[in-house]
Automatic annotation (TrEMBL):
<protein>
    <recommendedName>
        <fullName>Carboxylic ester hydrolase</fullName>
        <ecNumber>3.1.1.-</ecNumber>
    </recommendedName>
</protein>
<dbReference type="Pfam" id="PF00135">
    <property type="entry name" value="COesterase"/>
</dbReference>
<keyword id="KW-0378">Hydrolase</keyword>
<feature type="region of interest" description="Disordered">
    <location>
        <begin position="40"/>
        <end position="70"/>
    </location>
</feature>
<dbReference type="InterPro" id="IPR002018">
    <property type="entry name" value="CarbesteraseB"/>
</dbReference>
<feature type="domain" description="Carboxylesterase type B">
    <location>
        <begin position="13"/>
        <end position="464"/>
    </location>
</feature>
<dbReference type="GO" id="GO:0016787">
    <property type="term" value="F:hydrolase activity"/>
</dbReference>
<dbReference type="InterPro" id="IPR019826">
    <property type="entry name" value="Carboxylesterase_B_AS"/>
</dbReference>
<comment type="similarity">
    <text>Belongs to the type-B carboxylesterase/lipase family.</text>
</comment>
<dbReference type="InterPro" id="IPR029058">
    <property type="entry name" value="AB_hydrolase_fold"/>
</dbReference>
<dbReference type="InterPro" id="IPR050309">
    <property type="entry name" value="Type-B_Carboxylest/Lipase"/>
</dbReference>
């Protein structure tokens, strides 16, 4: 059965309706980024008549995800590049377009700022719509068009896309039954880093609440770091770093350059500043003096996100995804020492502290724990601490359920919480994450985790005590939930003052 929503001004969208949920896919919020427009600020979409929104639309130019020899990551990043001009779009799930005042959640996908899609199978919004939430996912520019610093072009174009998408939600979501004053923006991985940046950069009023899943707000590149990436990309392409030169190149060339620069191991430690992305990506938000005048966490500490309720968290063993699931050589002791030296001024003391805290025995286990904290857990704690002293509630979680995949070595890895948050366990295949959909305890954890996110969007409270400077309460999410005020062990104290 079809469902039609009138957007006003002579525009409407035709979606599908089944089992009490109406779905609208590929609805443009911005004009198609073509030619030199790929490097311009986004402009609101202009069209008229009825749009067919019954099937998935194109995705941003990006590398393939179905690469022989690599595990199935589609549940996390989507199908890869689905060519088409109009990819700056949103997908909407709603229980009733004719309703009024439903809470709204807007999801920002991950993908290292070089890939991903809002239409990934793992982001199916049926569970949210079933529970009375209007769920929106969005596409934004990634890689060179989205985040390469290019003279003559505005920086952070992918972040500007996200802001325009949120403005579209504010202007139109009431037509889908949602309350534009009750919007929660949430994201995972690069999407969580985007949420951290949006807390600092988005105009007031675009969202009321925010959720950061495995992110933080301490990862913006300095201009010098971003310029290093620009020089490497231009060198690979054999053109000067100018808008006219890049505009003359096809998307395929830009995607290939991203892959080559990413594989080259470019070191972003510049002018004594460590790589905030730890080599997991060479692309991301940059301190541009406009949207971002410094690290977003500092803006939050100074009041940029006052009045916004914030839920933040990370997974216990984030880096296992990269060291266990993805092809990589075994970590040796020299490799561990070299990696720790890039992240901390006292690498030997750091390694010893992690081993003393029981955070690993083998070099690979210790490196996973150190990387997990540097990239995810410590920035999450810093964001919680920065927001806890400001107006607006703060809540924190740690996802601790361990996947049995890879003989149990995958554990509580990066992205493992997503099937639980979206409540797709048992409905949608989870690929490399290996979540057993028939396990009753796992299904119960999915039900309870999803319910906490719904409650946060609806009521501004996920169901456990707030995180405060006096009581740093953290909910551990596992088949048995628990509450701790000592989630950050003594080994994490070694990161204080380290940037």
């Amino acid at each position: 059965m079809d469902a039609v929503v009138d957007l006003g001004a002579g525009r409407s969208v035709r979606g599908t309706r089944a089992d009490g949920v109406a779905v609208f896919r590929g609805v443009p919020y911005a004009e198609a980024p073509l030619g030199a427009g790929r490097f311009a600020a986004p402009r609101p979409a202009r069209w008229s008549g009825e749009r067919d929104a019954r099937s998935p639309g194109p995705t941003a130019p990006q590398p393939r995800t179905d690469v022989p020899g690599l595990p199935d990551l589609s549940v996390l990043v989507g199908p890869g590049w689905v060519p088409g001009e109009e990819y700056l779009t949103v997908d909407v799930w709603t229980p009733d377009p004719g309703a009024d005042g439903l809470p709204v959640m807007v999801f920002v996908h991950g993908g290292s700022f070089t890939g991903g899609a809002g239409g990934a199978a793992g982001y199916d919004g049926t569970g949210f719509a079933r529970d009375g939430v209007v769920l929106v996912t969005l596409n934004y520019r990634v890689g060179v068009p989205g985040f390469l610093r290019l003279p003559g072009a505005p920086d952070n174009r992918g972040l500007r896309d996200q802001i325009l998408a949120l403005a579209w939600v504010r202007a139109h979501i009431d037509r889908f039954g949602g309350d534009p004053g009750a919007v929660t923006v949430f994201g995972e991985s690069a999407g969580a880093l985007s949420v951290g940046a949006l807390l600092a950069a988005a105009p007031a009023g675009l969202f009321r609440r925010a959720v950061s899943q495995s992110g933080g707000a301490s990862h913006a590149l300095t201009p010098a770091q971003a310029d290093l990436v620009t020089a490497a990309v231009a060198d690979r392409l054999g053109v000067p770093a100018t808008v006219p030169a890049f505009a003359a190149l096809p998307d395929e060339a830009l995607v290939e350059a991203v892959a080559e620069v990413s594989a080259a191991g470019l070191d972003l430690a510049v002018d004594g500043v460590r790589d905030p992305l730890m080599g997991l990506s060479r692309f991301g938000p940059v301190v541009d003096g406009d949207l971002l005048t410094g690290q977003p966490v500092d803006a939050v500490r100074e009041g940029a996100a006052d009045g916004v309720d914030l839920l933040v968290g990370s997974n216990r063993e984030e880096m296992n995804l990269y060291l266990v699931a993805l092809p990589s050589p075994p970590v040796t002791e020299p490799m561990l020492r070299a990696a720790a030296a890039r992240l901390h001024p006292d690498p030997e003391g750091l390694i010893a502290a992690y081993r003393a805290a029981g955070r690993g025995v083998t070099p690979g286990e210790v490196l996973s724990a150190i990387g997990t904290d540097y990239m995810f857990a410590v920035p999450t704690a810093r964001l919680a601490e920065a927001h806890a002293g400001r107006p607006g509630g703060t809540w924190r979680y740690e996802f601790a359920w361990r996947s049995p995949a890879a003989d149990g070595r995958l554990g509580a890895c990066h992205g493992i919480e997503l099937p639980f948050v979206f409540d797709i366990v048992g409905r949608v295949g989870t690929g490399v994450l290996g979540v057993p959909g028939a396990d009753r305890g796992v299904r119960a954890l999915a039900r309870d985790t999803h319910a906490a996110w719904v409650a946060f969007a609806r009521d501004g409270d996920p169901g456990w005590p707030r995180f405060t400077t006096g009581r740093p309460a953290v909910r551990r999410l596992d088949t048995e939930w628990s509450l701790t005020e000592t989630a950050d062990g003594p080994e994490r104290d070694l990161w204080r003052g380290v940037r």
